[in-house]
Amino acid sequence: MSMTVGAAFDRYLGPGTGLRIEAYDGSTGGDPGGQVVQLRSPEALNYLLTAPGSIGLVRAYLSEQLVIEGMDEGNPYPELQTFHGGLSPRRPSLRELPDLARFVRETGLHVPELPPQESPAMWRRLAYGLRHGRARDAAAIAHHYDVSNPFYELVLGPTMAYTCAIFPDDDASLEEAQSYKFDLVCRKLGLSPGMRLLDVGCGWGGMVRHAVKHYGVTALGVTLSTNQATWGREVLEREGLSDRAEIRHSDYRDVTERGFDAISSIGLTEHIGVRHYPAYFRFLLERLRDGGRLLNHCITWPHNLKNGMPKDQFTNRYTFPDGELAGSGEIVRVMENTGFEVVHQENLREHYARTTAAWSTNLSAHWDACVAQAGIGTARVWGLYLAGSRMNFEKNVIQLHQVLGVRTSEAGESGVELRPDWEIEAAVRD
């Protein structure tokens, strides 16, 4: 080969990346004291060359052609920070182009086989139907949530809550923060004994159980995930709550009941599709009685300049196929245009950074058991996903908003206290 892999790395990336490359051709490059990255075969280089950026690195790593020495695969947060700041290839000069072309040609450039954990490109998902149609939504949910209930138990902990926790203080555990989150939602919704709650996208039923046990409501939860519904029903039966709570394996659009006192939507809006927001919020408004409240809790952009899918292809191909985000202003705008009176909103971005950090710690601590449950490839995807999510929340790339809306009556009655203070109410309860 006219140019070694190590020499190519030095020429186009330079030694200041904090990385040291050890390549299959025996060459080295990069920072002599940096994190050691082994490229084990020409396939590693093919992954990097055919998909520049993070997706090529991910493919090479999941295919075991790229190895990062000393990395905690359950919590690769330090390595992601290094890669995030260091891999910015410079543009080759015209004089260098012939050498670069020769180097690429000598690698036997081709598109290698994709890791089995990767979801098809968006245009290829048409086999499942149009984006955010019922069949394709069900396929997307199954891709992420129907991994293994024991796997999620290891990663999420006893609460089995797969949404942003809210930490009442610096010393709160993940379990305390998840319980606090459910209780805060209950207080914002103004729940009291005898009320009826609808929880759309209910997951494993944490919100349903908390509201029934601590606020005396009856509750219906719906989820598109078979695994979640099965697990949630078993817990309701075991805890003697089945007479007051139901977890239904269903699309939320199939809920025919009306007149609910409150609706919680915790982590569902990301799966709806931004252009479907008007229909979504209209559907929920129609399920509420006058004075009924909706608490919408979802990941958002930190601005309102764009809507839709993340540019990061890792998220769309490996974790949340067809996932879409909007700014909190867009959510408020659509809710108000649909007929809700928005009475409160707050940003919980830093709480989600803490939550994902705690999940990463759990994954790392139970790594062998998680691999046994889900396979090494899926476990590695989760390691990258959780650490990357933590970094994105910390850097304010994404946020988490709770927005509280009311179906105010025609007479203008919202039923909301003049000065509600959820935190004081929590202190009194504690």
TrEMBL record:
Coiled-coil regions listed in the entry: none
Classification via InterPro entries: CFA/CMAS, CMAS, SAM-dependent_MTases_sf
Keyword Lipid metabolism carried by entry: yes
Stored SUPFAM superfamilies: S-adenosyl-L-methionine-dependent methyltransferases
Entry keyword Cytoplasm: no
Pfam entry (one): CMAS
GO molecular function annotation: methyltransferase activity
Stated name of the protein: Class I SAM-dependent methyltransferase
Species in which this protein is naturally found: Ornithinimicrobium cryptoxanthini
